[in-house]
Amino acid sequence: MSEAADLVIILITGPENPKRLPSAFFLAATAAAAEQKVVMYFTGPATELLAKGKAESIFPMAGGKSVADFMKLAEDNGVQIIGCLQSLELNGMTKDDLAKPVPMMNPSAALPSLAAAGRILTW
Asked: What is the value of pTM for the model shown?
């Protein structure tokens, strides 16, 4: 992360609370569409959402869109997704389990850049 983000969302919520997830991605996508630099840092249980097939299998509302659809909306609007390297191990994952290449940073490497953001939300 070279320049400071306008908004950082530290996403802790994961598959355990699917109804809470869409709002984080809508907020990120809206801010990015308004030309703000937005970063979402996936840590703890949220890291599971980066695994192959996981976000595609979670539906916050029966018959609705998957979490993968909400993630794609955010990314299509320019949101940068970063994962927590230490959380991979916490969730029994390796980089090979990721659905696609995502920058992975441990907290000590990510914190200085995340803390420089204009606003930080923990979700």
From this structure: 0.93
